[in-house]
Amino acid sequence: MQDKVQKMSPEIRFKGYTDDWVLRKLGEVTELNPKNIIPDTFEYVDLESVSGTQLKDHRTLSKNEAPSRAQRVAKINDIFYQTVRPYQKNNFLFNLPKANYVFSTGYAQLRPLVNSLFLFTVIQLTSFVNEVLNMSTGTSYPAINGNDLMKIKFYTTENIKEQQAIGSLFKKLDDLIALQQRKIDTLKLLKKALLQQMFPEKGEDIPRVRFANFTDRWKQRKLSNIFKYEQPTKYIVNSTEYDSSFSTPVLTAGKSFIIGYTNENFGVKHASKNKPVILFDDFTTDSRLIKFPFKVKSSALKLLSIFSNFDFDFSFYSLKRISYEVQGHERHWISKFSNFIVSVPKIEEQIKTGSLINKVDLKIENTTEILEKTKIIKKSLLQKMFI
């Protein structure tokens, strides 16, 4: 019995496309480092200028003062592939209206002979990057030269309309991801400004920005008069294994935060939406608002609850502001916690100030959630719409 021939086709395709995809070398579908005349004055793009798929900055230079690496004169639809540490995927599809951009030789300049959006998506694929890394040299800073890059193989549709459809889809997803990230960055800057402007400077008792009709001077309070401090006594989780199906998260210090989940009941702290606690990280001088039951793994974590005559949100952001101020200077300032002085207004102003910053925080959380879901959708489509 004759073996069935495997159809070379991705799992998901746009309607109407049925042709097999074919294996091609990158050098068969693009021109490498086309020669151009460098303008007398130009916008220079070096290896630090591109982050992800976005051009973050550039600087104006004259030909005489430019570094010798300024060689790649950009043209619309050119792809600039970062040949050093390619796993970072800091690559840029040039779509700017001006023709006076020059990129560093740290980028391989690809001038596509196929749809540029489609090819740009291909070079971002994990499978493509893995092939690049296999042909790269160096350990700390793996790099690939342009000629070897041209040897990388990948499967592609040869139907230009299908290329356009796929490329346009991922362009929309990339634009949406970039937009959400810009929103998050803007909201974080707004939050930082509010924390700076709506709380008095050290030694002062009136903030620079406050709600109308509030004129009273803020009063100084020790943190021990605002927060109830608790040093958790249960650090060690009895089980050595965690299961994501379990109900109680186990929290640790540092960026990991949730190290796993357990069903053990002993030592569980019962925070809730109506009775949250602050988890304070002595190591990073960071704090988190916890509104669910949890267990503590690390001795670097301290628990703070609020005395009833203070607004929780306001008190939390007061602590957050202190964290920003001391971070990098007094890593273990928690040892001085009880005597640390902050300024506090009347409860009505506390509520309004805390509520405003909390709304910005919620917006950051919601936008971040949308961003992460969009990235998951893109990752899934990349896996299913390519071979």
Describe the fold and architecture:
Helix content is 31%, strand content 21%. The chain is of the alpha+beta class and 387 residues long. Strand 17 (277-281) and strand 18 (286-290) form a beta hairpin. The radius of gyration is 27 Å and the shape is elongated.
Q: Gist?
A:
This protein has 387 residues and is of the alpha+beta class.
What percentage of residues falls in helices of 4 or more residues? 25-40%
Compute the number of strand runs.
21
Low-confidence stretches: none
The shape is elongated
Query: Could you describe the largest sheet, including whether it forms a barrel?
Result: 4 strands, antiparallel
**Number of discrete helical segments:** 8
Strand order of the largest sheet: 2-11-8-9
State the end-to-end distance: 27 Å
Oligomer: single chain
What share of the residues does DSSP label as strand, in percent? 15-25%
SSE layout and pairings?
Layout: E1 22-25, H1 26-29, E2 30-32, E3 41-45, E4 50-51, E5 54-55, E6 59-62, E7 70-73, E8 79-82, E9 92-93, E10 101-104, E11 107-112, H2 116-122, H3 126-134, H4 146-149, E12 153-156, H5 160-197, E13 219-222, H6 223-226, E14 227-230, E15 248-251, E16 258-262, E17 277-281, E18 286-290, E19 295-296, E20 301-306, H7 312-326, E21 341-344, H8 347-384
Parallel strand pairs: 3-10, 15-19
Antiparallel strand pairs: 1-12, 2-11, 3-6, 4-5, 7-10, 8-9, 8-11, 13-21, 14-20, 15-16, 17-18, 17-20
